[in-house]
Amino acid sequence: MMAEISPSTSTDADTDDKNLRFMNSQPVASVTSDGSDKPRDQKTLRRLAQNREAARKSRLRKKAYVQQLESSRMKLTQLEQELQRARQQGIFISSSGDQSQSKTGNGALAFDVEYARWLEEHNRRITELRGAVSSHAGDGELRIIVDGILAHYDDIFRIKGDAAKADVFHILSGMWKTPAERCFLWLGGFRSSELLKLLINQLEPLTEQQLLAINNLQESSQQAEDALSQGMEALQQSLAETLAGSLGPSGSSGNVANYMGQMAMAMGKLGTLEGFIRQYWFEMSLNGAT
What we know:
By secondary structure, the chain is an all-alpha fold. The protein has a domain at 189-245 and 258-289. It has helices spanning 2-89, 101-134, 139-166, 168-173, 179-182, 192-200, 208-246, 253-270, 272-289. The termini are far apart. Mean pLDDT is 71; it is low at 1-11, 26-33, 91-103 and 250-254.
């Protein structure tokens, strides 16, 4: 019987050994697997964290962009409302020289909005003209485009003339121009005679009759500019003398009344600026038509 039991016992022991070795091998394999996957998991976690951070920054940028668009929309709406109120109040139509400060500010703001629209349309027309020239369009098509540009310039002369009624100093200062353009401003614009000098060099060879016409136009422009410059100098001198005469002791009511009268006279002389501006726009429009 011992012989019969011994093989059975040996077989069971071998089976137990195999099971024990299998069970002991499982944690080792698991540890080995965990050790090899750990760097990979760390890389994945870092990548996920980076993706989350990038997504967060993207959301912040998108939110800031949307807020900027909303702010710009609100500013544009406000400008539109200011322009509408200015038109309803008749700031550009009124010819009264005694404008309040608020109306003057609204007039300048309305002009800036109108000028921005005019400039945008002007750039579009110039681009259209350049495209037509590049595509060798016919003379008839080019004439239509050029006539449209000239008519568009008539609009800006009208807009500036109306704005001078509301705030002539805003037009003279040229704050609606770029800094480089303001360096060449004269009476709120450019000297037409100087522009003709620049233009003639850019034109193709002209006939003798065309050269004579341009020279005559340049001479007449120079004469008109000299007359306007002399008028401005006389106005400044007269204004300075009027203000100088108003200085002095103002203790009595008579002196105060005299001072107020002289200041009213000075303000009346400042109204001449509008006439100068209108004369300048008129000269420029004549040169453009020529």
